[in-house]
Structures are given as structure tokens and as C-alpha cells.
């Protein structure tokens, strides 16, 4: 998603630091039968970047390019990943209830041609998988489960769009359209739509980011009254019912991924704060304005402790020493959450902040991100880092990425497996 839409709400929230480490609990992925205690031999380190397509954030540079131009830009991003000695690209293939592959469930993305539903004349996901693998890169397919559009006008969607065929599935909120997570038929549909890519392509992982129920918007209410009345019986309150809806989506997707293609990993990249310690003694020493458990109804810690996911990649998008959400406090918290589970912990890094004049002074120092990776090496559960996002990996405004490569990525590394 765009830097603005994907993490903008996080800015007011918290702080923390993120690290990199080539160590970690070297257990097998959940459900694959490894050493759950994490005392196996460690191998591999994930070095990733997100490649965002929503609103043409990273790629394509604009809608309406020819197929050849789009392909050339995509391959240039993959080549940049290789040049920076990364080993994983997390490619956004379902940004807004659409598709970057020929899907029988949803229309072609408007970010390709400028017209939703218009065939771009090639297969971006198929090309990305083949070309990433040819370069020795893993390709993680990144999906957004519930976001339909970055506007609230259903008539702007192509006539065949499932959201127009099933208007009862749709909730307008905060200037956007969302599928209602409280409807079982919605859950089944979005799973089917995402898993179509798993069936068709040898992707290395299914990846979700931080959008479950939408981030809170002051003065607005997410109207799921009818769904709650129909399906919320037996829950103590609406919040518990909403969390169960998201838990079901995660559990069902995890199980279905393994049935379809057992080698495919399932990973989630949530907002960096599960709960503040003041809210819950199990929470982190933070004062974040957003808590995933309470505001997005996503019990991210539970998915790690119950080994529902293969990896977790919290977006620890704050500098070391940031008062509300210190990177140096959040990385240890996540390491403790992952300890003994066999779930791999990767840290999401805010490369996009480096050199941004709107950011605190720490982000004007090209060495800030390198310090994150140095810090994280003390926590063996941390198995790698992912940088947001591809455009900044290439542009590298103040040399922060080059500093990471020089200090930490002198040799190539394989992703953990």
C-alpha cells in the first residue's frame, strides 16, 4: 500500500526500533514438524523489500505504460534488490480487491492500465515469480484482504466487480470501501481470491500487511451492526467478535495454503505495537496511539504464540529512542513473543523515513538504520529485516540503504528455510 495509506496512521502512534540479525529460533515453520523450541541450527537471514503497487507507489511508475515498459520497470526493481544483496521481494499483487494476474475472481488492477478490469497484455505476477527466482530471489505475494477502494463510490468500480454484485458485503468507512470481515461469505470469497495465486504460481509466501479492520477514523463508525446481530451471538462484546472474525481468516488461510502448496510460507506484517503495557501487562513499554489488538482487532501476539503463521514481520517504524515507541524496546518485546515458537521474526524497517525532512532528527542520520540491524543482532529470534519500500531501496535519498549494505550485507545470504 502507499506509504501514506499503509502506515500513515502509525505515525501518531508509537515508536520503536528495529533490528537485523542473522540469528533466530531455527525451528521449522509451524505445522511442518521442526524443533518448536528453536534450538536447532540457525541458517539463513531474510533481507527483503516491499514492492508496493497501490496508487502506483513503487510500480508501475504510472498507470498506462505499455506492457514492455511495465515489465522493464519491474525487472529493474528486481535487479536493484540483487544489487543491494537482498534475497526477498514482497510484491503487492492484490492492492484493492483486484489482481495483478489473470484472476477468475477479481478484475485486473487499475494501477496497471488506468482502467480497472482492462487486461494489461501480460502477467505481472507470473513474470515476477519467474524473474525473481532466476535471480536467486524469493517472491512473496502480498495481498490486502479487505480493502476494496480508496474512495467510497461503488459506481467507480467495474460493473462486474464482486463488490457491485454483492453490495451487502461492502462498508464505506474513512473515505474508503471495505469488505465486511464479519460476514462468513466475505471471508470465504477473499480467501478464494487470494489462494487462486497460490494454486497457479510457485510463490514462496503469502504475505499480508497491517490492514484488518481499518485504522480508526475520528468521528466515524464502522457499520457492521447487521453482521453483528446475525453472527455475534455467544461473544461477550463486539470487539471479541471482531477479533474472532480476523482469527478465523488467519487460521483458515494458513491451513488452506498448506493444503494447496505445502512449501509456501504464510507471513503477516502487522503494525508494530500489539498492546501498550498500560493496557495489558503483557504489552510493550510503549504509548502508541494505535494498538492492533484493540483498534484493528488483530491479535498478532496470539498468532505467533499459537504458531498460526510461519513468520511475523512487525512494522517497527520508529527510531531508537523514540519516546512513544522505542525501537530498542519493541524489538526485544517481539523477540520474547517469538521465543520458543519456531515462528520466524523479521523486522519491518522504515527506510522511507531516512532523509525525509518531516521526520525527527534521528532519521536525518544515514547510520540510523544500520544501528537498527546492529541492535537486533543481540536478539537471536530476529531472522532478518524488510525495508519499505522498493523506491527508496533504489533512490536511497541519504545513503541509509548503502550504509546497511556496507555494514551488514557484505556477502549474499539465503533466506531462512
Can you give a write-up of this model?
By secondary structure, this protein is an alpha/beta fold. Helices cover 33% and strands 12% of the residues. It is built from 14 helices and eleven strands. The protein has helices at residues 3-11, 67-83, 110-113, 124-134, 162-165, 184-200, 225-231, 238-260, 292-296, 300-305, 327-338, 368-376, 390-395, 400-408; strands at 46-51, 88-94, 138-143, 147-149, 170-173, 176-179, 205-208, 265-268, 311-312, 344-349, 382-387. α12 links the parallel β10 and β11. The two termini are 27 Å apart.
Major beta sheet, specifics? 8 strands, parallel, barrel
How much of the sequence lies in strands comes to 5-15%
Order of helices and strands: HEHEHHEEHEEHEHHEHHEHEHEHH
Q: Average pLDDT across residues? A: 91
Strand order of the largest sheet: 1-2-3-7-8-9-10-11
Output the radius of gyration.
20 Å
Structure class: alpha/beta
Low-confidence stretches: 1-41
Number of helices: 14
How helical, in percent, are the residues? 25-40%
Q: How far apart are the first and last residues' alpha carbons, in Å? A: 27 Å
> What is the approximate shape?
globular
Number of strands: 11
